[in-house]
Amino acid sequence: PTTINPHFGTARNPWKLDRITGGSSGGSAAAVAAGLCTFALGSDTGGSIRNPAALCGVVGLKPTHGRTSLVGVCPNVQTFDHLGPMTRTARDAALVLQALAGHDPRDPASRDAPIPDYAADWDRGIRGLRLVLCPDLYLKAEVDDEVERAFSKAVQVTRDLGAKVETVHFAQGKRLMELFPLIAGPEFAEFHRPFFEKDPKAYGAEVRERIEDSLKITADEYVRALRERQLLRREMAGFFRGVDALLLPSMPCAAPPIETLMARVNGKEHFGMWIHRPFQSPHNVTGCPAVSLPMGFDGDGMPLSLQIVGPEWSEARILAIAGAYEDATPELRAARAPCA
What we know:
single chain; alpha+beta; Amidase signature (AS) enzymes; eight-stranded mixed β-sheet; two-stranded antiparallel sheet; 12 strands; 36% helix
């Protein structure tokens, strides 16, 4: 989640070169932010599109699980892996998704569902949509005051555009997070096992430790977690009944320094490696689509990010909400990061 790699070096954030890009798709996010390309692709197992998109000030879309083919993508956790676009605008994300979406019989995770016109709702606005806030879904994790202020302003923008916004509850937010390692761990370890057994020193220390911990999870724990995940996906479908989208911060703070990886939240330091998890990983467990997009800057000029999550197959809607927000707040975006 940092794109600090012991074999290939460190990707640098084009907003401040001493900050991380996030990851694992940090190179893609940095390239888009720097104006090196119009769009890039990323993979998202626990936030690896939305995390670097948030920290680099671009748009990152994790589609519904199975919406885009994973053929050609190095497996990580097939149950949670998603392929999606990283762009400078929500409209560009819709255009790229239009090209990516579709069933692929070569991909066991691919799902056959109708492909809508992802730009069809652009001119309808968001008046009358029901948007919700739910701190339970990020475990009521503390966010930095600068993020909280930017998020409150973003919510008010959606109200000003005519959306109805209310706060709701979801009792199983903690359990979604608890299931993540029980499913992700064994699948991650299963893919890496033959390489790891042959040459464990080829892996960096953090990845090596993750594989070793994952190998301790039993088959019983994994199977029970898969069953429980199905029940929680049904509960999430019920949560979204009558709800158009969920709004929450993408990250609790801006990008931490490469040197220390310590993220500061209201003056308190937290290890920045996994600080994104409560805000992003639950939506890998449910498979729901989610998009991160810029919502302003902190006092150091680093990007802050809004996340919009919807029910399965609602990419067109969440991208239309993102596009309406972008149109109303052009001052919160830069065509290119300053260090590019």
